[in-house]
Amino acid sequence: MKATSAELQTRVKDLFEDGTISHFIGYETGSDSLRVAPCFLEGSQEIGRLVWNPVCANNLAKYLLDFKNVPGRVGIMVKGCDSRSVVELLKENQIDRDRVFIVGVPCSGIVDREKLLQVMGISPTQVVAVQDEGDSFLVTLTDGEQRVDKEKVLRDECLVCRYPNPPVYDVLTGETVSRLPWVGDDYSMVKEQEALSLEEKATYWNRELSQCIRCYACRNICPVCTCSECIFDKKAPRWISKANDLSENLVYHLIRAFHVAGRCVDCGECERACPMNIPLRRLNKKVEKDMLELFNYTAGIDVEQQPPLTTYRVDDLDEFM
Amino acid sequence: MQKTKEIQTEFKPKILAFCCNWCAYAGADLAGVSRFQMPTDVRVIRVMCSGRVPPELVIRALANGLDGVMVLGCHPGDCHYSEGNYLTRRRAHILKRLLTYIGIEPERFQLRWVSASEGAKFSAVVKEVTDQITALGPNRWAEKR
Amino acid sequence: MATPRIGAFICHCGTNIGGIVNVPEVVEYAKGLPYVAHAEANLYTCSEEGISSIKRAIEQYDLNRVVVASCTPRTHQPLFRSACADAGLNPYLFEFVNIREHCSWIHREHHQEATEKAKELVKMGVAKARWLEAQQEFESDIYPAGMVIGGGIAGMSAALNLANQGFEVHLVEKEPGLGGRLLRLNRIFTIDKDPRELVENIVKAVGNHPRIRVHMPASVKAVSGYIGNFDVSVDEDGQETSFKVGVIIVATGAQVLKPELYGYGESANVLTQLDLEEKLKDGELGKFQNVVMINCVGARIPERPYCSRVCCMTAIKNAALMKEINPEAKVYLLYRDLMTYGVEFEQYYRDAKEAGVRFIRYTLDALPRVSGTESVEAVKVYDELMDMEIELPCDLLVLATPLIPNDDNEELSRMLKASTGDGGFFLEAHVKLRPVEFAMDGVYVAGTCRWPADIRESIAQGYAAASEAMIPLRQGLVKVEAITAVVDPRICKGCGTCTLVCPFEAAGLKECEIRGLEGKIVSEVNAALCKGCGLCAAACPNGAIQQRGFTDVELMSMVNAMSGKR
Q1: Structural domain boundaries, residue B37
Q2: Is B2 contained in some domain?
């Protein structure tokens, strides 16, 4: 990403001052140099809080829901993946297009906190800043600088990213990204899983999903989980019991995978938020792959494109004679 | 020394069949009227259209321990509500692949097309699916605790 | 909501259920189910006695839900619902459990398992009944007119019947004249009359009737709506006409199979029975000396297993007629079976034999063979009764072929949501109990488009279909079954998924007007357009939209009951 925090701050300040926006959703420094937190501004007074750097992992689209009934126009900065989530929210009328001002920020990869710490063999307190340098990150430490190969420390979803440039925006801040050299087969992870035997598949998911503590962080962080009364909170009918056993965990994750089917853009937030390191992307990416193969559908690209499970073709695959 | 006799209880599966009112349920009725004899393991739940069956309910049924879930609807193009079964079909594809992906035998969820005049087909489907699921053995989802 | 008090009525249905399922055991089991306040057995729940029993029990045991376990809801649901209504119970607090077609009749050799299955089905039905809620039906006016598609004898009979009863009728006929196939026939058997006499009077009556509007030549292009409110668009000789009707009667007839057997289409002296009728009528049949008729050509074979009902009599009639025209001619009728049912037909057959027609029986595995150079000259047949092959000289070969569905049946079926059955003929709602109506409300059927029928049957069916069609027309009101979808605006997030999946555009987004939710964009269902399919309910991510009578809670309760969960 070529835009600096300063450039972003200037952009947003102008938007406030010419009255285009009344609020802004962005990033500010988090609890340490490898974290950011969502930042909500109501004017340009505290514009210095805004940051834009390779640590900005959060998908801010989620917070648009909080502004649904707030008068005025809310500005938001979105990476490629985030803007695709915004497209999905627009498709479902969760916010009006004319009440959102989208500041698109082309992104060439977000650093994975755990990978960076492990590859560099450091602790978070040693890190001062991380900068984008094309094919590598320049990490400023308390005692010097180090360059590290991007491919080694990028977040998993960035390694398969096909949309570094936001497909939907009102204004772009930063130069468009021309190529991401590391992107190969985006479904290799899913294919690897598909190749396992039925028994191996069951063993894998039973192991992974028994770790789930049903904290619902994945649901809460997901930008397309927008139901104020979630199906899992309902008592009538009760879709899953409160019991935190593998059987109910499986039901939860399968149903959620179905609910985000055709809406998940693989922003990776669910996996990032999961306290138990469950490979949630590996589950949702499977549905994404099937949507593409069966229905030629990609989420978050075109507001007019109808969700694939609300439509059909007469010549859809029919294995069920 | 006494020989202990092992009592082999043959596994009888529990299979749920959602049948749409206009085609599959009527086909099942016709099978009954024609007295086609079938295995006794299937229970029918009537819905107006196969499109009423949410994939979540199939997942829930399997998680409850039912050995197999079938959805039976009108042949594509013949849906009483013109489009319902097309949507059912799309949902079923995604669901079947997802279930297989997490290690559930794909035969435990089946979508079939049975028209109102296909009493024989209904009977054949019941027999076929019962055989398939019996061969798979009990659904071990409920044991994932 | 008051505590559910469910009454369970388990039917013996004579020995149909009781002979296989241990009904008393099921009754005892039902008594132990949650919320069941009363359970009893009936010999025939649908009988006068059974119905009274239900009404009595509702009062005596203060029941607020009724479950009947008997046959299929597709027959008696309306009956039991009105029994409940008569006893003061909302008819939607009733649940039907099928333990006959889906249990006793298909598990005849497994009484114990059938009984266990019946118990489980009752358990599921009771579990659902517990959640049922009283519903009000949406009422809609009936447009006092009918459309009859097809101007043959069945269609004209139906049209006249309807019109004479005081209703407007649109009669749509695709040919340029009324009368159908009758006009092409030479003679009608047993009364030996010229069909033109019969038909002309009826055609005149139809043409002159002030309430019948004939669209001809015309074909139906589109039909939308529902019983009482069908919008029809017709292509009338290049022009589009639209009109509204309350009921539709399908009487489009059938066509005669033109076979690819026995030299038909190649030799000039091979005809179908219909071809023969036409030639006789137009006086175009040449001289003949040796007539051979073959029955069941292309019928009662694996690809087309049915008997076409009218061809045996047609063949016998024409065979006798051949003898009448040329008493010196040899007339042979090769048959597999003779379907001359009843008194008159059997007599006709005997008379034909006495007139000199020779009947030879052949079998499916030894079909007759024809030979000849430019035309058929001889027919070889293995006479089963004489156990020898004989060769018959032949200068006129007449084939009796079956009636087959019209080519446009599929398209019409789709337009009207009228089912077709085996072989492509239209399929009635119930093989025995509802012979002239479709499962789709407000659409009826008569004549050969449903199944091969003779003239009397076609006329009778035309009258019957018109009678059935008149029931809603006379009532003037149609009640839409209360299984439509309803949105809870508190839960609805206005995502619009339901509006996208609805095939009838019955769900739409709008601003909520409920106190506390003003301005919230939520979905709303137009009950007049909702057909109760439930697609919306399955697509909704958080259960905001539910289908009455098939809610998530109700369906889940049945799944839980079956899996032994609470």
Answers
A1: 15-134
A2: no
CA separation for the pair A217, A214 (Å, rounded):
8
Summarised one tens digit per residue, pLDDT across range C483-536 is 999 999 999 999 999 999 998 888 999 999 999 999 899 999 988 778 899 999
Q: Which of B48, B67, B74, B118 to mutate to test the interface with C (most CBs of C within 10 A)?
A: B48
Phi, psi of C382 (to 5 degrees): -90, 105
Q: Identify all chain C residues contacting B78, using CB atoms and an 8 Å cutoff.
A: 413-414, 419
Mean pLDDT of A181-189: 86
Which residues from chain C sit within 8 angstroms of residue A238, using beta carbons? 556
- Domain membership of residue B31 (yes or no) is yes
Is the minimum CB–CB distance between B109 and chain A shorter than 8 Å? no
Q: Could C108 and B31 be called an inter-chain contact, meaning their C-beta atoms sit closer than 8 Å?
A: no
Q: Rounded CA gap, C293 and C379, in Å?
A: 10
Answer whether C419's CB lies under 8 Å from C426's CB. Answer: yes
What proportion of chain C, given as a percentage, has pLDDT over 70?
Answer: 99
Q: Choosing among A93, A96, A251, which should be mutated to test the C contact, i.e. which has the most C CBs within 10 A?
A: A93
- Three-state helix/strand/coil letters over A143-175: CEEEEEEHHHHECHHHHCCCCCCCCCCCEECCC
Q: Is the pLDDT of residue B41 over 60?
A: yes
pLDDT score of C188: 86
Task: Please say whether the structural domain C145-253+406-478 has been given the CATH code 3.50.50.60.
Answer: yes
- CB within 8 Å of C156: residues ≥ 6 apart: C171, C178, C179, C202, C203, C206, C462
CA distances from C142 to A259, C167, C172 (A): 41, 12, 21
- Is pLDDT at B145 greater than 70 in this prediction? no
- Tell which B residues from 16 to 55 touch C, by Cβ distance under 8 Å: 16, 21-23, 25-26, 28-33, 35-38, 40, 43-49, 51-55
DSSP-derived secondary structure for A277-289: ---HHHHHHHHHH
* CB-based contact C539 A310, cutoff 8 Å: yes
Copy the structure tokens of residue B56. Answer: 């979540």
ipTM: 0.94
Q: Kindly list the distances between the CA atom of residue A36 and the CA atoms of A50, A54, A129, in Å, as whole numbers in the listed order.
A: 10, 10, 12
Q: What's B88's domain CATH number?
A: 3.40.50
**C256-403 in CATH: which number?**
3.50.50.60
Count CB pairs under 8 A between chains B and C.
147
Six-digit token pair at C561? Answer: 């009951």
Q: Is residue B145 part of a domain?
A: no
Nearest residue of chain C to residue A88 (CA atoms): C495
3-state SS assignment for residue C7: strand
Average pLDDT of chain A to the nearest whole number? 94
pTM of the model as a whole? 0.79
Q: What is the pLDDT of residue A321?
A: 54
